């Protein structure tokens, strides 16, 4: 049973990787499931076995590449990790996210797509965004002990907004995604902001 689950995960990742290539090449609107299947070297039926429609595949593909914070965990088993370890994990994850130009372009592409065509995908995207902000705000609680709901959500929203802004600048070539200096600056900024809000909260 475990082997079947592993194969299914590998197949989905193969589909997502192929979808990303086609989306970036053709855009969401013009990309077809047939083209994605061809890129992945599988049948369209195999894709529909994992995804009901193209919108569901778009959502999965973008979520995997963009919303890195959903994979972060403040706990190791039943114990809360030291705050320094959590901060370092956030720093590493942020660095990977900001240096991934594919993820940046996908993010801009999806945002434009859902805002221009208000459909079921817009609702899913909004819900995903809200869950990411919630997860980010929880990470600030674990890391800095910020329990004030207003402040922790504000800091999380600023963090997500900053990443969105960097996605635009990276996609336009304004920022060098290989430059670690600005990534470290971002991490330092939010670390200091978190410490500042401990005092205010």
UniProtKB/TrEMBL annotation:
Regions recorded as binding DNA: 32-51
Secretion signal span: none
Keywords carried by this UniProt record: DNA-binding
Domain of life: Bacteria
InterPro entries noted in UniProt: Homeodomain-like_sf, HTH-type_Tx_Regulator, HTH_TetR
SUPFAM superfamilies hit by this protein: Homeodomain-like
The keyword DNA-binding appears for this protein: yes
Annotated HTH tetR-type domain residues: 9-69
PANTHER family (UniProt xref): ACREF/ENVCD OPERON REPRESSOR-RELATED, ACREF_ENVCD OPERON REPRESSOR-RELATED
Name the record gives this protein: TetR/AcrR family transcriptional regulator
Organism of origin: Clostridium hominis
């Amino acid at each position: 049973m475990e082997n079947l689950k592993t194969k299914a995960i590998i197949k989905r990742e193969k589909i997502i990787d192929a979808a990303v290539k086609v989306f970036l090449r053709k855009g969401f609107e013009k990309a077809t499931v047939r083209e994605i299947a061809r890129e992945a070297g599988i049948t369209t039926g195999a894709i529909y076995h994992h995804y009901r429609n193209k919108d569901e595949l778009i959502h999965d593909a973008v979520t995997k590449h963009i919303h890195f914070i959903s994979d972060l965990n403040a706990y190791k088993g039943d114990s809360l990790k030291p705050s320094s370890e959590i901060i370092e994990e956030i720093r590493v994850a942020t660095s990977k996210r900001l240096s991934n130009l594919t993820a940046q372009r996908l993010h801009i592409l999806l945002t434009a797509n859902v805002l221009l065509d208000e459909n079921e995908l817009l609702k899913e995207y909004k819900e995903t965004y809200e869950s990411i902000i919630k997860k980010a705000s929880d990470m600030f609680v674990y890391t800095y002990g910020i329990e004030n709901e207003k402040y922790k959500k504000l800091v999380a929203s600023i963090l997500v907004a900053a990443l969105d802004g960097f996605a635009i600048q990276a996609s336009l070539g304004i920022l060098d995604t290989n430059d670690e200096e600005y990534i470290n600056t971002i991490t330092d900024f939010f670390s200091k902001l978190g410490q500042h809000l401990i005092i205010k909260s």
